[in-house]
Amino acid sequence: MKNTQKKLKAKHFRYLSKDVIKNPMTYLEDFFVHETSIGYWEKEINLLINAAAVPEMADRNHAEHGYQCKLMVKQIEVAYVIFYQQQLPIQDTPLDFLPTRNDYYNYVFNAKYTTLGRSSPVDTISKFFSYQSLEKWYGTMDDIMHYLTVSDSGNYEYFGDQIIAIRELLIRLAFAMWEIHQGIEASEKENKLPQFEDIIDT
After folding, report:
1. N or C: the chain end with fewer CB closer than 10 Å?
2. Contacts 24+ apart (CB under 8 A), 57-63
3. Is the pTM higher than 0.70?
4. Alpha-carbon gap, residue 159 to 53, rounded angstroms
């Protein structure tokens, strides 16, 4: 049967080049080797969400929240390329992060994100875009960027309870992308040519 899936193009995204769309692994290599580490990136996401949700928590002297927001949008776009090209499913309960007791223990005692007891970056990416579409994620990130310019929150709750899910999904996505990168590095150390399909579901 012929695959009728439309080809993604750079014009569909804000920041992606056609080379990254063709091979998302080039982005992962650049980001997690030359841009940041997963530990730093997790902290930056936390600070970004804090600053957007509660402006009084923003570090306006040291943090570069606008730049970090742009990096997060680009990472979402790369994740969408994976989601689209691998034809990942839409899940009915995308916020069910701990479906088994094993997943709970992995999270609490081992600081690991797992699904049914094993690491699964594709499940995280599937959950991310099941929660809301790429267009809605653009809207969320635009709102975050806007609220970074607000000096105080006053009586407004900019995101309500949704901010908890947004933070969790962004952090989980970051770890999923890092895990894919780790799979790439492991293949290269074994002198194997990295195959994207073999790496994304570790």
Report:
1. N
2. 58/148
3. yes
4. 7
